[in-house]
Amino acid sequence: MQVNISIKRHNPSAPDNNTYWEDFDLSMHDTASVLDALIKIREDVDGSLSVRCSCRSAICGSCAMRVNGHAKLACNTKLSDVIDADGRVTVEPAGVMPVIKDLVVDQTLFWDKVKQISPWLQPDGPEPEGEYIAPNSAMMDLAGVMNCIMCGACVSDCTVLEIDKDFIGPAALAKAYRFVNDPRDDQTKSRLIELNEKTGIWDCTRCFECVEVCPKGVAPMERIMSLRESAMEQGLDQTVGARHADAFTDSVAHSGWLNELLLPLKTFGMFNLGAMMGLAPIGLRALLRGKMPSIFHRSVPNVHRIRRIVKKIEENE
Amino acid sequence: MLEHDVLIVGAGLAGMRAAVAAHERGANVAVISKVHPVRSHSNAAQGGINAALTDRGDDWTDHAFDTVKGSDYLADQDAIEVMCSEAGDDIISLEHMGVIFNRDEKGHLGTRAFGGQQKARTFFVADFTGQAILHVLYEQLMESKVKVYEEWFVLSLIIEDGECCGVTAIEMATGRVYVIRAKTVIMCTGGVGRLFEPSTNGLIVTGDGMALAYRAGAPLMDMEMIQYHPTTLKGSGVLITEGARGEGAYLLNKSGDRFMEKYAPNMMELASRDVVSRAGQTEINEGRGIDGCVLLDCRHLGEKLIKERLTEILSIGRDFAGIDIIKEPIPIRPGMHYIMGGIKSDIDGKTSIPGLYATGECACVSVHGGNRLGANSLLDTVVFGRRAGHHAAEVSKQMEYKKFDVTSQIKKAEMDLQKLLDRDNVGERWANVRTDLGVEIDKHFGVFRTESGMQSLKESLTGFKARYDNCSVQDKGRIFNTDLIFTLELGYMLDCAEAITLSGIERKESRGAHSRIDYPQRDDDNWLKHVLVTKTAEGPLLTHLPVTITSWEPQERKY
Ligand SMILES: Cc1cc2nc3c(=O)[nH]c(=O)nc-3n(C[C@H](O)[C@H](O)[C@H](O)COP(=O)(O)OP(=O)(O)OC[C@H]3O[C@@H](n4cnc5c(N)ncnc54)[C@H](O)[C@@H]3O)c2cc1C
Ligand code: SF4
Ligand code: SF4
Ligand code: FES
Fold first, then answer.
1. I need a labelling partner for A116 at 20 to 30 A (CA). Which of A31, A311, B9, B79 fits?
2. pTM for this one?
């Protein structure tokens, strides 16, 4: 199989023009992965190509990067699934995090967010003599999240993090789910109070991106929705986020479908222009990526006008 | 000046368990790792971790006996007693830290069967046990706020007056060289899988710690004991966990026969790994394989069980072989997996060099002897990681930092690196040399070995070293220069290759993983002893140590 792999490179040691695209023509095995191609390049063609990888089996979480614009693990992405008819594929570093060199990004932001949710078990009282007794079903539910390999693919492509670096983000919130739902943990409520704050569970726009890119089926967005429910159950409703949910209910009650465009108005109040402007690009970007189709199926035939607005906003950014 | 009471090199299970333990005892602890802790290779352990819990009607002495027998009587029985008797408490403390082990109907920890053992005593988290434990230990590390030098690569151990007092290391993100001073250093750097081609091990598993200790003068022990896992995927060598056979999967040859009937009529597919690997290799060698492989068949286990307990294998089959294991058998062959040998250490992790400790796969206590039982390695890392952490923390309380010339250490390390970078680009690539070396060593140090094969390997090592000395580094920059790192790693692997080859030639019998066609029998009269290799000014020195026998006299091994 002939492939042409186009890599966005970055050489921090070069004085200028240090970010550029470079193409490599390779002959690869039919079942080869994107990572196999990158390894071949650094071993046989250009040793200066930097890329993190180790396990080659989607378990160490080292090799998240963007393939054709979307975050993936290079090691479990088959070339044959991503090349176009001419054998072309593009590879760039993961998004949101700053690039150190070539495909290596600085993951400090990722880990800072994980640390923010106090990611360790906090049980009540002295430890029992033997193990904690817990139903297998609860443990296996958590296994779905423990499966997370902290690769950062979701963080790379999260539409909110892209513009608001304060958002705790999908991976850390999925990790929070793991503690909130661990029958052994005693800090459920205080954890939820924190998650209920600004930058927490209510900042997610449900764009689905993290669910789509996660290579391990963690489905961060669904975990976030579940955390919202838990927060509401705990009676935590005096926040921006919960007001958002109330508005949601109003909207559905009024028209039978969700008017997402009105939601922010109700959530932040009519006159909180700052917050509104902050949100606009998220919604619009989500729209451009085809994440909000249901809203417009009836009332907005003139999508092109909205596209124009988006373009304006993006130009001004 | 960076300095710590206890400096732990490596952040896999052994390293992080040691860090948590040393921190508990109030020491100023730091961990240094060439990859972020959760990228460590302990991640890959799918199957589980052994322990005999008495409240479940199991007995640690049974576990100890299975381990002794599995080791082909080469392991030190006092060390095995420590490991097996403390296993239960260590599993429970992992559970208390937050590991979400699978449970039984009553909500207690559940077990599965693993090879070479009479009882089901393997605790597990679906089929990502290693990852589940590794991530929880990292949670503990985050809570403790122990300093982690992330993506720092250790270049050398600093030995002053015969004592280990720190390391030199390169910070990969900047390319700067540092000295970290320490009262005690614990090596937890894992195995040496990448010396073999193919191998189940990740690309970062390159024997660094063994080579660093070897260069510093510590002996390496039982290095000839290399485990070939019976079930690695055709081609890529990706591991298919023993958990599959634990759940009841069959091994079949070309005619569809369960060939283990011939080799281990009682334990069948669950005999010890060395036994099953020899059986599979014999079938292949004698023409009863298919295309250099035999088959692992999970079909009769049913979709439900496979989806619940063997999810990882399901996806490995799909992603790496294009096979749906619910519907088709998987082509597999024995492949390099683990090294039983390593830096000679005792039950507290102490090596022959004061201040230097070693635990985990890079160490040899020895609890695995000639053949490690599945799921005993994770146990080794947590039991001896904890013990080493505690010991080093206590010892360092009574110690002062040793003084040495820091500047000259840094200068020397800098010069060595610069020399590598300055080589012009006409030399060979490290990758070529590594692949050739890996194929060569797989050929002569695989499931079956001969004098002539091992001798020819020994001779070719000289050639490989010469090629290595001529390798050029293409990346001339300092920032995240992986080309440089890989070249250094190859140097470490070559040292390990030397120790492995010499030990293999030395042991003139067949025991555990060391199966010699020219000496097919175990020979307790002459070889019930360990082989050690020490680097000296006059070249490698081979010595022996007796095996410690406590309760179990050597018997013939039948499964
Ligand atoms: C595919 C596979 C499946 C397995 N399944 C099981 C199982 O089911 N049960 C079981 O008991 N065992 C299993 N094993 C074996 C077990 O996983 C390993 O033996 C064990 O995890 C090793 O742990 P460790 O802490 O010693 O080393 P590792 O986890 O390999 O950690 C080594 C650490 O050292 C660091 N390091 C290395 N060199 C340097 C350097 N130069 N500078 C700085 N840092 C360095 C690395 O960054 C890393 O953090 C399996 C092994 C493999 C390969
Ligand atoms: S669903 Fe929410 S968390 Fe996931 S990518 Fe979209 S905004 Fe981010
Ligand atoms: S949730 Fe999925 S995508 Fe995000 S870090 Fe975890 S494994 Fe990666
Ligand atoms: S190399 Fe480990 S996840 Fe891709």
1. B9
2. 0.91
